[in-house]
What we know:
alpha+beta
Amino acid sequence: MDRSVKSDVRLTGRVIFRGDPGYEAARKNWxxxxxxxxxxxxxxxxTQDVANAIRWARKNKVPLRPxxxxxxxxxxxxxxxxxxxxxxxxxxxxxxxxxxxTAVVETGNQVGRIVDTLARQGYMxxxxxxxxxxxxxxxxxxxxxxxxxxxxxxxxxxIELEMVDAKGRIIRANKKQNSDLLWASRGGGGGNFGVYTKxxxxxLRAPNKATVFRITWPWEQFEKIVKKWQVWAPNASTKxxxxxxxxxxxxGNVSMLGIYLGSKREALIQLExxxxxGTPTQKIIRYLPYREATKFMLAPxxxxxxxxxxxxxxxFGRRPFPEKAYKAMREFLEKAEGGTPAGFFFLNWGGAVSRxxxxxxxxxxxxAKFYVEWNSSWVNPSHAARNIALTRNTRKKLQPYxxxxxxxxxxxxxxxxxPVYYGKNYPRLRKIKAKYDPKNVFNNPQSIPPA
Length: 451
């Protein structure tokens, strides 16, 4: 492997060139069929390693990609042929300050590790649907999840950050300095402005206990469950968060996972309207110490041993689906491959998320009733084209009933994606991009171009 460099800038940290031992392991991503071959991986141990890697990439004129948890749903957003991948996953410090109710976390931490570390000390950190997602990537894209109606999005709790810019300079952003960068980093997506190395979050005291639930229904009942859920979930207590999943017709079911920040008795009152629909085949409702409740919500999710490739798409629903939307859902679920993690996923909205104005942060889609995503999965690479087409055609059919799309669930089938991900915040994001990365060093197939 050619290691020749055109400068005195040295790569530091744990450096793996193509051909080195460990290269194939470094190349593994959430998608098992990752087909990119970077020139070099730099596993940064500290912020200076990131700065050196960016300067090295500039000097040697190679493209770069930042990576945190290897969860990029489109593999080429965190990998690049012949370039450098700057991986922050070995930067894992977490510092809780109880006096100020803040936590400083390095961006290589997985969400589950942060949630658990804080829960053990009596604090609550918002999370998504997986413990292994990197905080570095989920935060700048918004960070949606079951606690958001109480806590807001993950990014709504971000109050300060450290980032390395395109020149290798270490920048801090908060309300007082570089406040435009803080604004952009709260929903403007990862990989656009620089490589994030530290986040400071405000944190809340956790309740001593919480009620968690998992309810399952037969697949055939999905329409009536989804219909009821879309009316019930947005109007339930903001202490309640629920995710509704509908699997493929072949071997799938309907299941609702959620958490209520209160007693089991109160939770049952909240859940009654949805529990009275259909014939649930399983009902688990438990009042648990808060830390155990987070473990229930964040089931183990092995990233690098997954067998399936996926194609995702997403949007936000402003009103309950009409009949035509259910027809599109049914067609999708009947064609999706059985035995794979394909299907529809809904998350309830409102509460703390909707109390923030759409332009107050870069995350624009505040006024929805629910979030929806769907994905097709396949094991055999020869099934890829058919499944990608299935997901994208379903988007066309659902388009009249949804707005926008979630940048953390990217779909490269979306043309002119900027306004779809960022709504009316897109022009401002382009200006901020021009200020911090005028030469578009941080780019990927759907990144924000400088104004």
